[in-house]
Amino acid sequence: MWGGRFSASPAEIMEEINASIGFDKRLAPQDIRASKAHAAMLADAGIIDAADAKAIIKGLDDVAAEIEGGKLQFSRALEDVHMNVESRLKEVIGTPAGRLHTARSRNDQVATDFKLYIRDRLDALDEALAVLQFAFVRKAEAHAGTIMPGFTHLQPAQPVTFGHHLLAYVEMLGRDRGRLADARARLNECPLGSAALAGTSFPIDRQATAKALGFDKPTDNSLDGVSDRDFVLETLAAASICAVHLSRFAEEVVLWSTPQFGFIKLSDKFTTGSSIMPQKRNPDAAELTRAKVGRIAGAFQSLLIVMKGLPLAYSKDMQEDKEVAFDALDSLGLAVAATAGMVDDMQPQADTMLAAAGSGYSTATDLADWLVRVLKMPFRDAHHVTGRIVAAAEAEKLPLDKLSLAAMQAVEPRISADVFSVLSPENSVASRVSHGGTAPQNVAKMAAAWRKRLEKT
Length: 457
Ligand code: ARG
Fold this sequence. Notes:
Pathway: Amino-acid biosynthesis; L-arginine biosynthesis; L-arginine from L-ornithine and carbamoyl phosphate: step 3/3. The protein is mainly alpha-helical.
């Protein structure tokens, strides 16, 4: 492509480090789409003949079909997807192919292609996340009143409902979708026509190409147009946060499905056995989902470091943006889909959860609240009295609601039998009706509200 000034071929190792076709061939559909828009615009602006543009566009469609059919042999000597496509176009249509690269450079070409690609992936990801939210909502609806222990410090804290716990993830995923949507909105400006870095002397119509490719507008600064990779960084940052959320749920699936917890069962569809230990049922999909955040957050770090300190405008360093982003988006897509599968698959073990919710003195706060409400004790005093009652129950190895009234009265004589009405996990969760609280009626309402929102989109 630049034979004019060169007389020798690159060193073998130069070709190897320089080539990106091994991975950027993924951008072929976007590259061809952008080239078709560019060619049409060049003709409309009178920069090339309509007949040439027609030949180029038809030829690009043929090349696209070849690539889709796996028939095009990519060449490493041609470096990247852009030159592979153009070179094949030349073979297919001859001379007019040489006019396609008028008023553009690979620098604005790659920025445009990659934006189109990221945009497609963001759209697919948004849909997949909505599917996952729906899976959580369905389970939450079915388990609005299923009681489990809520934890802080992974120590039993207060009883909560399983539906409430699941809806917490629906909230997180809602914010994730918001962040990805923000990234999409901000990236939607078209760099095509920025050319190498300075713009072009040809009378191109950047509004037209931007519009044809579904962008809101052309980018306003040609230097920024070719050197911006914020759109990848922002996508990877949002993807990392989303992967963190998935990893937290995955960790809970791993814990909950142990015999020690026994809160959920996963079917054969989402577990694997061991080649040596016949009793095993391992939650591999959850473990791998927990792990994927490593490569996703790693991709974000990787590109952040590549971009740090890069002078304007384009530098070849930026070619390193693609592999990590591809891997991160693939990994996130897998993790989201696997999580949706696990949410559907998991069977909550209501009896085990309820029994666990009643252990660990998790209704101690309810006892303290009763002392405040009925005996008008200051909360700090009530906390102290409750602590002594818990200690008494612990000494007798009894749960709170099985401790005798006499034993409680030994600590605080004014306690009456009415106290037992607040000591069960059922009463505890039923009382948590504050906005955003865990009461079954709240959960049913929130799940219904989410269902409505999700059905709309
Ligand atoms: N393969 C290159 C990349 O991904 C395309 C841009 C090349 N531009 C250049 N001036 N060599 O970044």
